[in-house]
Amino acid sequence: MASVLNPYLSFDGDARQAMEFYKDVFGGELRLNTYGDFGQPGAENADKIMHGMLRTTEGFTLMGADMPPGMEHSPGNTFAVSVSGEDESTLRGYWEKLSSGGSVSVPLEKQMWGDVFGMCTDRFGIPWMVDISRPEG
Fold this sequence. Notes:
This protein is an alpha/beta fold. The chain has two domains: 8-66, 2,3-Dihydroxybiphenyl 1,2-Dioxygenase, domain 1 (Roll); 81-132, Signal recognition particle alu RNA binding heterodimer, srp9/1 (2-Layer Sandwich), CATH 3.30.720.110. The chain is 18% helix and 35% strand. The chain has helices at residues 15-26, 88-99, and strands at residues 8-11, 29-34, 49-55, 61-66, 81-85, 103-110, 116-121, 127-132. The strands form two sheets. A four-stranded mixed beta sheet has the order 1-4-3-2, with helices on one face. A four-stranded mixed beta sheet has the order 5-8-7-6, covered by helices on one side. A hairpin with a 5-residue loop joins β7 (116-121) and β8 (127-132). α1 (15-26) runs antiparallel to α2. The radius of gyration is 16 Å and the shape is elongated. Residues 6-130 form the Glyoxalase/fosfomycin resistance/dioxygenase domain. Pfam families: Glyoxalase. This is VOC family protein. InterPro entries: Glyas_Bleomycin-R_OHBP_Dase (IPR029068), Glyas_Fos-R_dOase_dom (IPR004360), PhnB-like (IPR028973).
């Protein structure tokens, strides 16, 4: 099996809701394991997500979890999750769902390099870039 690179997102107690939201956006199979599933002590964390993984029919893998007990959740602006391709209808659908309830920093529109591109931050504070490229040929 080849090596793969997957985004792994950290959340402050709402990983279940976020990962279910991404499943609604992208479809696919979602597996969620709680701290309680792995015998982590502490009733207040038993239902928190220790590891979540979404695998989509498009070939995406997105992972996420609630911050472990005792670790501070400190979101930053040093990353974004990028989704790109030529299937305009599918990508516009992702954009509509991801930007709904969030904020748009760059509207999804044609850019100087010829692609349709937009940037938004979803309602969970995760920044996304969507790029619809022109078909080759």
